[in-house]
């Protein structure tokens, strides 16, 4: 909240900077700046968490291997515990919250197979982007999120995993349903949909694994069951199913928002759109600048395994440290003119994908999809513009994306 002179009050709690609060939902950056400048290491006793907002502190914390990740390692009542499902036992978690020694056993073979797959399928992934853009309306006004930003990531991951064409409509529905799990204040009806979707996906992944064991295909599930059989991927079937699900939950909404936030930024910064059109070689840098400027995931967390100083403050065993990626990416200590969206300058690396051992496994895929979308979209619609509308940002804490984005051709 700003006072009469426009000064932003320094937030006292983490909730104040999430999309639960209307002002932060519309634009979290003024409050994050107030924290960065006045209280860069904030303790929130209600949420039982620390909150770091400076780039240097965030970077050092996400990279530090002495922290752990699983919410049940944190103190009673912490925000991390409140955000997980009751049955999120350490044995039922994906790599997202997996700790050592299991993280180092499960992630490397999955990451290696995933990256090999993405590289092998680059032209297929780009074809999905192109076809989706070509299928969008040729003229008039439409919602870019519904027509382009939502379908592309789910169609791409379905192709990578090897989902059968005839099961695609169901797969899209289940993917949407499981993502409801990201919303801690979902309705009972949404919880029921989430649970049904999650069971259906689980069952389908197991079916696919059996089918690909019998007759391997050209897809990630075939790769993983073969690596399992040869002993090169020491994962149980349960672990494989949980982590295939994590590729969906971790990758769909986030990539959707990278696409949506980017299109919105280019349409509201015509000089940057012109720069991209004039030099398509700026494509990769443009994606990085969108990630920096409006990070689709605004925060990640770590948990202390021992008492120690973090960001210069003494902290205790089992305390949670939330790292604001959105804030770190706008820190003037690291980025010149941080509040300018500028794709033409080479900037230091952002932290939109986190860092260290848990750095986003899907980063190369998200980058590949977004780069192709920006290129193809503005090629197909050279005169695309933003019509008059009230922009609605999603009310999901720790994520930043638009509910809809109407564009006019
Ligand atoms: C723009 C798109 C994306 C953003 C902004 C994003 C962001 C993040 C962030 C911030 C983390 C936590 C990192 C940390 O704590 O250090 C993460 C982890 C993860 N992401 Fe992404 N992500 C994106 C796309 C994807 C995609 C496309 C996939 C999969 C297909 C994916 C799957 C995952 C998984 C499985 C993890 C857990 C990794 C681990 O803990 O070892 N993400 N992501």
TrEMBL record:
It comes from the Bacteria. SUPFAM superfamilies: Cytochrome P450. Pfam families: p450. Keywords: Heme, Iron, Metal-binding, Monooxygenase, Oxidoreductase. GO terms for molecular function: heme binding; iron ion binding; monooxygenase activity; oxidoreductase activity, acting on paired donors, with incorporation or reduction of molecular oxygen. The keyword Heme applies. InterPro entries: Cyt_P450 (IPR001128), Cyt_P450_B (IPR002397), Cyt_P450_CS (IPR017972), Cyt_P450_sf (IPR036396). Belongs to the cytochrome P450 family. Cytochromes P450 are a group of heme-thiolate monooxygenases. They oxidize a variety of structurally unrelated compounds, including steroids, fatty acids, and xenobiotics. This is Cytochrome P450. It comes from Hyphomonas chukchiensis.
